[in-house]
Design a protein that fits this description.
Elements lengths: L6 E3 L1 H9 L4 E5 L3 H6 L10 E3 L2 H6 L1 H5 L7 E5 L4 H12 L5 E4 L2 H7 L2 E4 L8 E7 L4 E8 L2 E5 L5 H10 L3 E6 L11 H5 L5 E4 L1 H4 L7 E2 L5 E4 L2 E9 L8 E5 L3 E5 L16 H15 L8 E4 L16 E2 H7 L1 H4 L3 H10 L7 H9 L7 H8 L25
Parallel strand pairs: 1-5, 2-3, 2-4, 4-5, 9-10, 10-11, 11-12, 16-17
Antiparallel strand pairs: 6-7, 7-8, 8-9, 13-14, 14-15, 15-16, 17-18
Length: about 400
């Protein structure tokens, strides 16, 4: 009897399986160092094991013996080839339901999962695009035949596809700040004549791609009105950090405030100065916003921060009550909090900042490598300091 052939699956399919209640074992055949540095995470826990590819080369049967029999096996590697090789070995040795990830871990790193935030009765549509491999969020706002994107990743086709489903086209791309942890898609969008890129000049002075500068309190609308988008300068994570208030209801906060902490202000090498600006942004510049405003952050730390619809958002009032960064009594205590939670930033961040200003050109392969790995933009060491009280995530 001929052995069954393994099949190819995509990163979005993997996310859907994890999200829907995983019934498989994920086998990661990357080396132990890469696996320990960065692995696949999702909203549900699942059996996840690491047996490096070279183990299969040196001891086929011993390696196969470590894999649970009779289970569905999904394999991931760095670039696809090693996973395919191991998948074929498993099929030849009695496993009947084996798949391997298309383009390997790079595919997972670039995947975007759109989640609709607005209800069916809204006259506009707001989507949160979750990037599971980076633990980041970007946004798409659609009104009639036009769309605006906020902090897009390089996979601009994902935003364009959702816009096209609504019969619209992307006409504006906003950057909340010059990203350090991933390469932005705004320069790609700027190449098209239909899309205007909007940035804060403090982060993008001399940018080597077409863009327009955004002033504090500037208001943007669609050709046929629709929801207003108001720019709020909220420096601290960077000096040009700008949040965007949509329709007075949704605050796209970039890296200013997350669900469980604030953005780290030390990436620019001026942590004391920037920490003060971040403190003032949280305590003064956002003070006029109502507690009912829904905050939609640029990053998350873990899936526990998502609500029951698997969307990352929370009422500003809840964050004011629960997030440590909002609850410190004065500027000095805030600076101490930042200092206690500082850690070295990845070396690649400096290069990514240059790419996002248009001053450094890299190949697709180089960009894929630079983009790998979870973000480190929050002012906490992955939960070392987070919320001061339990946030009831299903209450919104």
């Amino acid at each position: 009897m001929e052995a069954p052939a393994p099949f190819l699956y995509t990163a979005n399919e993997l996310f859907d399986w994890i999200n829907g209640g995983p019934d498989f074992v994920l086998l990661d055949v990357r080396n132990e160092k890469d696996f320990a540095n960065w692995s696949i995470e999702g909203p549900e826990f699942f059996p996840y094991i690491n047996i490096p590819y070279f183990n299969f080369m040196e001891d086929v049967q011993g390696s196969i013996a470590r894999i649970p029999k009779g289970e569905k096996i999904r394999i991931v590697c760095a670039k696809e080839g090693s996973a395919k090789y191991v998948a074929e070995l498993l099929c030849q040795n009695g496993f009947s339901d084996v798949g391997y990830l298309q383009q390997g871990i790079v595919n997972w790193g670039n995947a975007l999962v759109p989640k609709k935030v607005t209800g069916e009765n809204e006259e506009y549509a707001l989507y949160q695009f979750i990037r599971p491999g980076k633990a980041s969020c970007s946004y798409l706002l659609i009104y009639q035949q036009e769309a605006m994107v906020f902090d897009p990743s390089r996979n601009i086709e994902a935003y364009q596809a959702v816009a096209q489903q609504h019969g619209s086209r992307i006409v504006k791309s906003f950057e909340t700040h010059r990203q350090a942890d991933y390469i932005s898609g705004s320069p790609q969008l700027a190449e098209g004549k239909e899309c205007t890129v909007l940035v804060n000049s403090l982060d993008f002075e001399g940018a080597a791609f077409p863009c327009e500068h955004v002033a504090h309190d500037a208001v943007f609308t669609f050709a046929k009105q629709g929801p207003e988008v108001r720019a709020l300068h909220t420096p601290g994570h960077t000096m040009g950090s700008t949040s965007y208030l949509i329709d007075g209801k949704y605050l796209l906060s970039g890296d200013t405030i997350f669900i469980n902490t604030a953005g780290r202000p030390d990436l620019g090498g001026k942590w004391e100065e920037w920490a003060r600006e971040l403190y003032l942004s949280l305590m003064l510049r956002l003070r006029g916003l109502d507690d009912e405003v829904l905050v939609l952050p640029g990053h998350y730390t873990s899936w526990s921060e998502a609500n029951c619809a698997r969307i990352f958002l929370e009422k500003l009032g809840k964050l004011r009550e629960n997030v440590t960064a909002f609850r410190l009594p004065n500027e000095r205590k805030f600076a101490e909090f930042i200092q206690d939670n500082m850690r070295p930033q990845p070396g690649v961040y400096a290069e990514i900042r240059r790419v996002n200003g248009g001053w450094l050109k890299v190949s697709q392969a180089e960009a894929d490598t630079m983009d790998l790995g979870k973000n480190e933009c929050g002012a906490s060491n992955y939960g070392k300091v987070g919320v001061s009280a339990e946030v009831q995530r299903c209450a919104v």
